[in-house]
């Protein structure tokens, strides 16, 4: 049986991930989106990877500016995840009304997150529907301590000990 996009999507629902928001700016326009296709790939040098759909505003901004920020969300931030996924808040500026800060590149990071990473693209790998970016982490700021927001099989969860 050939592996289709739907079959892979169904299989990957069994992979539990954290939830993050990727933000970027270019020409005075900022935007962001919820992603779970984010991970570290190297400690020396400090590199992370994220994959963004080519049809998104965020991907267009990253392609133009070559920088992005990643905010790792904490438990209880489902509404922020939904907002940046475009499910509950499809305004032109998803960042409107949220507290943000910036580090090196000026990209906005969400103040309420567990940690913010400021990144500069060093490699990109175009695919038919998306682009995989590998980026150097230029700066990191840790927020309030807490537990991460977790996503599994199209639902949010909290970690328990």
From TrEMBL:
Pfam families per UniProt: Flavin_Reduct
InterPro entries: Flavin_Rdtase-like_dom, NADH-dep_flavin_reductase, Split_barrel_FMN-bd
Flavin reductase like domain: residues covered: 12-158
Keyword set includes Cell membrane: no
Keywords: Oxidoreductase
Alphabetized SMART domains for the sequence: Flavin_Reduct
Enzyme Commission number: 1.-.-.-
GO molecular function terms listed in the Swiss-Prot or TrEMBL record: oxidoreductase activity
Superkingdom as given in the UniProt entry: Bacteria
Protein name stated in the entry: Flavin reductase family protein
Species per Swiss-Prot/TrEMBL record: Thermanaerothrix solaris
